[in-house]
C-alpha cells in the first residue's frame, strides 16, 4: 500500500513537471505558429513564400528541445530552492573548477535526474522483494532517496578537494618562480603572466583568471581576494593577504615573496612529515585484516594438523 502511494506521488510529480513544461513552451509555440499561419494566409490573399533553409543550418533536436528544456527546468528548480542552496551550489562549482563549464541550473537538473533514477532503482528493488514489511519498504525508499540526493554533492566535494590538493602542491613552485622573476626586475603582473604562459594546472588557471580580471579594469587587490575566495585554500589566502599588505604598506614585494616561498616550503615539509607519521596507523588495518590471518594459517595450521593426527591415534 505504501509503495503504491509512493509510486503514485512520483508519477504525479512527473506529470506536474511535464504539464508545466508544456504550458510554458509548447502551448505558446503552438499559438505563435497558428498566428503566423493566419498572417501568411491573410496578407493580400497570398501566402508568403518561405525561404529554403539549409539542412546544416537547421538546429538539431538537442538545440531545439533538450537545451531549452534543461534551461527551463534549471530555472524552475533554482527558483523553488532556497537562495542559500543555490549560492552554495555555485560556490562549490567554482571551487571544483567547473564554474565556467557547468551552471548552477544545469547541475540542479543533473541532481534531480540522479534522484529520480535512484528512486526508480529503489522501486524496482522493492517490487522484487515482496517479503519486506511496510516499515522496511519505507526505510528502503528513504535510504535510496537520501543516497540519490547526496550523491551529486559528494561527487562535487571530491572534485573540489582534489583540485585544492593540486593547488596546495603547486603553490610553492609558483612562489619560487614569482620570487625569482620579481627579484630579476619584472613587475608582479609581468612575472605572473610569464608563469601562466609556461605552466599548467588549477592554480595557473586561477592566476590567469585573476590577470584577466585586472586587464578588464578590476583593481588588483579585489582580483586577488576573489582568487582566494575561489580557491578556498588556506595557503592561497595567506599568499593573497601578504601581497595585499605589501602593496598597501609599500614594502619590498621581492622580500615578501621570498618569505612566503620559505613559509610555503616549510608548511609543505610539515604536511609531508605529518602524512608520514600517519602511515603506521593506517597500516594497522591491512595488517590485522589480511597479513596476520595468513601468518596464523601458515604457522598454526601444521601444528593443528599434527595435534588432530595424535588425537585420532
How would you describe what is shown here?
It is a single chain. The chain has 313 residues and is mainly α. The chain has 2 domains: 2-48 and 58-159, no CATH class; 165-269, Up-down Bundle (Receptor-associated Protein), CATH 1.20.81.30. Helices cover 83% and strands 0% of the residues. It contains 10 helices and no strands. The protein has helices spanning 2-42, 61-80, 83-95, 104-127, 134-183, 188-198, 202-215, 220-231, 234-249, 253-312. Helix 5 (134-183) crosses helix 10 (253-312), helix 6 (188-198) packs across helix 7 (202-215) and helix 8 packs antiparallel against helix 9. The longest helix is centred in the C-terminal third of the chain and has 60 residues, at 253-312. It is flat and about 90 Å long. The N and C termini lie far apart (65 Å). Mean pLDDT is 79; it is low at 43-50. Residues 175-300 form the Type II secretion system protein GspF domain. Its main location: membrane. This is Type II secretion system F family protein. It is a multi-pass membrane protein. It is found in: Cell membrane.
Could you give a quick summary of the protein structure above?
The protein is mainly alpha-helical and 313 residues long. It has two domains: 149 residues, no CATH class; 105 residues, Type II secretion system (T2SS), domain F (Receptor-associated Protein, Up-down Bundle).
Amino acid at each position: 500500500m505504501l509503495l503504491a502511494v509512493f509510486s503514485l506521488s512520483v508519477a504525479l510529480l512527473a506529470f506536474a513537471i511535464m504539464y508545466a513544461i508544456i504550458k510554458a513552451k509548447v502551448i505558446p509555440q503552438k499559438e505563435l505558429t497558428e498566428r503566423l499561419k493566419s498572417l501568411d494566409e491573410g496578407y493580400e490573399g497570398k501566402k508568403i513564400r518561405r525561404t529554403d533553409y539549409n539542412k546544416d543550418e537547421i538546429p538539431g533536436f538537442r538545440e531545439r528541445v533538450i537545451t531549452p528544456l534543461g534551461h527551463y527546468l534549471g530555472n524552475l528548480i533554482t527558483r523553488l530552492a532556497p537562495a542559500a542552496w543555490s549560492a552554495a551550489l555555485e560556490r562549490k562549482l567554482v571551487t571544483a573548477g567547473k564554474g565556467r563549464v557547468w551552471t548552477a541550473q544545469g547541475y540542479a537538473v543533473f541532481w534531480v535526474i540522479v534522484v529520480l533514477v535512484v528512486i526508480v532503482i529503489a522501486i524496482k528493488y522493492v517490487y522484487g522483494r515482496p517479503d519486506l514489511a511496510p516499515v522496511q519498504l519505507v526505510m528502503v525508499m528513504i535510504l535510496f532517496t537520501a543516497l540519490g540526493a547526496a550523491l551529486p554533492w559528494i561527487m562535487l566535494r571530491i572534485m573540489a578537494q582534489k583540485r585544492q590538493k593540486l593547488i596546495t602542491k603547486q603553490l610553492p613552485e609558483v612562489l619560487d618562480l614569482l620570487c625569482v622573476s620579481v627579484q630579476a626586475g619584472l613587475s608582479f603582473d609581468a612575472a605572473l603572466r610569464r608563469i601562466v604562459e609556461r605552466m599548467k594546472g588549477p592554480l595557473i588557471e586561477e592566476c590567469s583568471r585573476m590577470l584577466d580580471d585586472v586587464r578588464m579594469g578590476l583593481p588588483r587587490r579585489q582580483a586577488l581576494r576573489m582568487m582566494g575566495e575561489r580557491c578556498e585554500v588556506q595557503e592561497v589566502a595567506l599568499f593573497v593577504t601578504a601581497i595585499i599588505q605589501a602593496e598597501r604598506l609599500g614594502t619590498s614585494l621581492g622580500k615578501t615573496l621570498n618569505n612566503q616561498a620559505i613559509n610555503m616550503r616549510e608548511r609543505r615539509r610539515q604536511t609531508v612529515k605529518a602524512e608520514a607519521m600517519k602511515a603506521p596507523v593506517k597500516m594497522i588495518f591491512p595488517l590485522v585484516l589480511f597479513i596476520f590471518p595468513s601468518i596464523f594459517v601458515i604457522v598454526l595450521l601444521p601444528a593443528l594438523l599434527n595435534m588432530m593426527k595424535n588425537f585420532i591415534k
